[in-house]
Amino acid sequence: MKTIELSINQQVHRIEVDPEMPLLWAIRDIVGLKGTKFGCGQGLCGACTVQLDGQAIRSCQTPVGSITAKQKITTIEGASTRLEKIIQAAWIEHQVPQCGYCQSGQIMSATALLKSNPKPSESDIENYMSGNICRCGTYSRIKSAIQTAAKNASKNASKSTKS
Question: Which residues form the 2Fe-2S ferredoxin-type domain (predicted)?
Fold first, then answer.
C-alpha cells in the first residue's frame, strides 16, 4: 500500500492504495465518483474513459501509481467547462443516449477530440471515437452531436472574440 495524491475534478484526494490498482477503481470505489463506468476491464470499450491533462485515457488500464500529483484528472462529474456544456447540450439535442451506460466515456472522448481538433471532419470523428463502443448502436447520433457541438463551440468562440 502507498499514499497517492490524485487531483480529480480540481479536488485533491490522498488515498492509500496498491499503486497497481486501476485508476477506475480508485475513482469509483475509493473517491466515490460513480459516473465513470466499468465496461470490459481491458481498455477496449471506452466506458471508463476519463481525461488526464485533457487527453482521453482508459482508466481501467491506467495504474493509479503511474499518475503524478501534478496531473489533472477529469471525470464526467467534473465536466463543466464551456466546451463540455456545449457537448452535453448537443447530446440532449440529438437524443444520443438509449441505455446511457457508455455516455460518460463517449462525452469525455468527444471533449478530448474537440479540444485537440475543434473542426473535425466526419472521418476524424469516426476514427477518434472508434474506440468507444455503444451497445445500443447510437453511432450516427453521437457523430451528429459532435458535429453540432463543434459548430456551436466555433460560433460561441467567434462571439466571445467580437465582444
Answer: 2-79
Q: Is the pTM of this model over 0.85?
A: yes
Domains and CATH numbers, the chain: 2-78 (3.10.20.30), 82-162 (1.10.150.120)
The stretches in the chain having pLDDT less than 50 are 163
Please give the order of strands across the beta sheet that includes 72-74.
11-17, 2-8, 72-74, 49-52, 55-58
Q: What is the pLDDT of residue 158?
A: 63
Q: Where are the beta strands (DSSP E) in 9-145?
A: 11-17, 49-52, 55-58, 72-74
Asked whether 73 and 124 are in contact (CB, 8 A), the reply is: no
Helical pair 139-162 and 82-93, crossing angle rounded to 10 deg: 140
Closest CA to 49 of 71, 69, 23, 26: 23
Question: What is the H or E stretch that residue 105 is in?
Answer: helix 103-116
- Is residue 93 exposed (0-12), middle (13-18) or buried (19+ Cβ within 10 Å)? middle
